[in-house]
Design goal:
Blueprint: H1 17-42, H2 46-64
Helix pairs in contact: 1-2
């Protein structure tokens, strides 16, 4: 059976209500796509299963990138 595990980093920035709600929506979508992919794979419809997996991975990526982004700037040494 297909199983995707969401790896998250618990940061204070992700604790605000807006990001928490959006994150919950994305995690729900992830579970739906995962179930669709598993059902399609069980029926032997591999292209549909692959699309479901890709959609689930996209939801996982989007859930992990919610919140403020941090740019790391490296100053060159003189």
């Amino acid at each position: 059976m297909l199983s995707l595990q969401l790896q998250t980093k618990n940061t204070p920035a992700k604790a605000d209500p807006f990001h928490r709600d959006q994150r919950a929506v994305l995690l729900t979508e992830l579970r739906v796509h995962e179930a669709e992919a598993a059902a399609a794979a069980a029926l032997g419809d591999l292209p549909r299963a692959a699309r479901g997996i890709l959609k689930a991975l996209d939801c996982e990526r989007r859930a992990n990138t919610l919140g403020p982004q941090v740019l790391q700037l490296i100053k060159p040494r003189p």
